[in-house]
Amino acid sequence: MPCPFTYTLPKHRYIKIVKNIYRKEFSDSRPDLLPTCYQTLSFRIDEKATARLSMTPKASITRNGAVLLGKHVACDSHEGSRPIRVVTHAHYDHLTGLERSLRKCQAVVMTPATRDLLGAIRGPLFPFVGNVKALNYGETLVHDDEKLTLHPADHILGAAQVLVEDRIGGRIVYTGDFRMSNTPILEADVLVLEATYGSPFQVRPFRKVVGEALVSLVESALKIGPVYVFGYHGKLQEVMQILHSNNVNVPYLVPEKIFQVSKVCERHGMRLGKVLSTIGDEAREIVEKNEAHVAFYHMNSKRHVGRDAFRISVSGWEFGYPRRQIAPNEHLVALSDHSDFKELLQYVSESKPKLVITDNYRVGGARVLAREIEKRLGIPAKALPA
To answer: Which residue in 221, 216, 215 sits closest to 242, CA to CA?
Structure first.
């Protein structure tokens, strides 16, 4: 990890070094952006006309996917030099190196809901292994000269944005994965932005009608027989909540792990309807009698279950239609828990950062998004890791 360092040098040498650092990080010469380029520069000129240059990285993303904020915090992957690890939510691509973090970090920070979801996904002993620190939204953890606060992110239950504030009032924000509709926009000096749908072509003008399309499809299919829904943890429970709130009052049958995740969601306020584990007697009887029900399975189970039933896959990787038939007995519903391209730009515009870093470790269009942010908003942006 790069460490802070200090030079004492004549003023003209200081100016030359700053310019060289700037040119190295940005291909275009824009002196107006000099104070905010990629790494924040601070200096003092003393009475002897010397300059003291301190260069401390404010944010970065490592090749292992760790989002580094300030001097002490790593998010969503393990970084050995950082004493604080943050888990923004319970999806696997944000859990890299979690076991090492639990063994080695002074604190592994997450929301109470994320802690409980990981207990359901990874086993009931998870919260008791390592120093897990559950922070509610708006609650602050102080470490040395930095403050860490979690803020809501509309993604899955428990998802959080991360704000780190340094001793001089600098604000470094990592959005994590988020959907704009119910996500507060945080003002930032440096913004680390998810880039799942970072291409200008990845927009969904029909987002508001997706729920209606899903309910209509399920209701029609239930007249013929059982319906199988495939998705990921969190999104499956969102589908249950949409169906239940629209009076699709049939049993929801799920494998045991999804059952445990669903129970956590209910304890944290979600209303999902009648959810039954497939290992229970009532669920078995419903299947044997071929009674109306909706079965929910993880996307990884798609090849193995419900192959002859009516099937629905919920995915954000559909931009043409709210729903689309992809096989004689299968439809794709464009239910996304990520912001589309226009919403990502909206967040950046309203956050007013001096620098944006787009997440180039996880799947998405980080490089394209960084270029578009610079072109459309005039804000310096860089995709990391490079």
So the answer is: 215
Of 332, 266, 253, 331, nearest to 297 (Cα)? 253
* Strand bridging mode 171-174 / 160-165: antiparallel
Confidence grade of residue 125 (pLDDT, cut at 50, 70, 90):
confident
Residue 321 has pLDDT above 50, yes or no: yes
Question: Mean pLDDT, to the nearest integer, of 266-290?
Answer: 97
Options 3.60.15.10, 3.30.70.100, 3.40.50.620, 3.60.40.10; CATH for 59-202+340-384 is 3.60.15.10
Domain range summary for the chain, segments of one domain joined by +:
6-56, 59-202+340-384, 207-333
- Rounded to an integer, what distance in angstroms lies between the CA atom of residue 65 and that of residue 38? 18
pTM of the full predicted structure?
0.84
- Element housing 229 (H / E): strand 227-231
Q: Considering Cα of 153, then 182, then 58, then 141, what sign does the dihedral take?
A: negative
Please state which CATH number belongs to domain 207-333.
Answer: 3.40.50
On average, the pLDDT of the chain sits at: 88
13: amino acid identity, one letter: R
Question: Quick check: 88 and 75 in contact, CB under 8 A?
Answer: yes
Q: Which parts of 164-296 fold into alpha helices (H)?
A: 210-222, 235-245, 256-267, 281-288
